[in-house]
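Working notes for the structural subgroup meeting. M.R. asked for a predicted model of this chain before we commit to crystallization trials. I am recording the input and output together here so anyone reviewing the notebook later can reproduce the run.

Input as submitted:
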Amino acid sequence: MNPRTKRAALVGAASAMALSLTACGSIWTERSNDAADKAAARQNQDLKIGVLLPEKEAARYEKFDYPHIKKEVEDLTSGKGRVLYANAEQNAKRQERQVDQMVADRVDVLILDAVDSRSIKGSVKKAKDAGIAVIAYDRLAEGPVDGYVSFDSDQVGHVQGDALLTAIGSKASKKSRIVMMNGSVTDPNAALFKAGALAELKYLVTISKSYDTKDWKPENARANMAAAIEAIGAQNIAGVYSANDGMAGGIITALKAAGVTHLPPVTGQDAELAAVQRIVTGDQYMTVYKPYPEEASTAAQLAVLIAQQRGIEFNALAKDRVDSPTTPNVPSLLVQVVPMTQSNIKSTVVKDGIYKVGDICTAKYVADCTRIGLK
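Returned structure, recorded in token form:
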């Protein structure tokens, strides 16, 4: 099947299996009347939800994820629920210490976005042994997690790859040379983004250079891109697959530093404000808009449901199933994503209240905003 035809068939609802939480060995067990009575009482008690996020390089975590989780927990508990928060700033060892602190603080549930999904598994087990349920957030941590909330990462890669082919257009062929700037090997999502994009690209264009970018850092992507330009020649690059917006910024900086005035299409992900503004000017072709409020709200809902021992409602919400390298059939919810280009800025990030038009169309960008009808 042509990969672009295949992509059309893939975009839709994420896979779901009707498995009970009891069957997949989660925290839920058959509840006696006494247990049900205790659970009902638990709903009226104060809850402590721990939230550990991985880094600040991507603006989303401090700007969107944490505030939305905090607000949702407060709303769901009528103000009785507290959120204890820490950011590891891309330091896996620091995050392990933060888990230890959450255990010492006796949180009821931990929402964990792992810096290193593999190395964190010991800390996940430590939390579980202390009776703390763990919801893997955005990245699927290894170890005995009780739930997982993320975007459909395979779909993200397909969307990015398909958009890059669309941007190259009818000229796309095996003579078209592509640079792939993938994410960090410590992030399991990066491998899924890469696989999804390759499924779209590998039969129709040539991947001339491919990099796994340490820590997702823009400066590392810039250095990798400079090496690719030197090896391939800027004029021979038909497009650049960038796994996220931060790296796209580094890539575009490298291209401009090499004297490129007519930039090849560059993809992205996260709909960061700087990336949206680059899309407005035409420097970046697209980004993947991921509705963070939905992801964050869902994680908060699952955490509160676990803390309140409301297993039936948890099962209804976490309707998907995902396998990690250590834990099969993790109850999950995979949120769908949207490709964003100049044509749908208003119907995505503006409509959802992520940015106002004024946030995007500052003085530097007014003329370009007017040109594309964003006002």
